[in-house]
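Example 3.2
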Amino acid sequence: MTMKRALTIAGSDCSGGAGIQADLKTFTAFQVFGMSAVTAVVAENTVGVQAVFDIPVEIVLQQIRSCVEDIGTDAVKIGMLSSPEIVLAVAGAVRDLSLPNVVLDPVMVAKSGDPLLSEAARETVRERLMPLARIVTPNRFEAEVLTGRPIRDLAGMKAAAETLRQSGCEWVVVKGGHLPGGGEAVDVAFDGRTHHELRAPFFETPHTHGTGCTFSSAIAAGLARGREPLDAIQHAKEFITEAIRTASPLGHGHGPTNHFVGVTSRW
């Protein structure tokens, strides 16, 4: 059996709960060979972000080329891109290298509330990178920023998904885990025709650091293994739900999810 491959282009999280560390753990849980192109070195933990160092653009590009030109990849997950220059460079690499199955997680703010994407870079993500993505996975707050409209309910999520789909991407998944009320975590996946509601139990827990990174990299791993988009999204939803439910109490703030759930189950 040929080993499937996935590349994450994102920032690092030295505490291991988010960023490329979470992505690589998730790829492994899905038995996909993981590679990484680091866009920023982030000193952070469960209570906040202490420092961010952007990697020079030419080094980001060389990492991508080094992976793709030698090993190749079946899917790409894109996470934290803190500057407009890095966004433009990554968009160019996706286009020039014909990178397949791109899953874009438009990371803007850390779980602690610390900003991870400059305002100038947000517009560049919307105009230059989203049209190249197969699946885009903003959470409620990111979707609000990208659309310029508040999201207060399921109808607002669906409207945001429709607006973001107009960017040119194939699928939009608006994550509604942050919506108040109810006992469910509801996401909306939209392909331009149908709104698919993805429902799972909502767990009242502080251990949700890196959920967006983990969810999007699980989708990318599913695509790498040949799943169709909706199937990959649904399996990723199941995976992140179990990862949250079984999380260990690590750290003094927003602790990480349990990426090992995939190693010990059917994933």
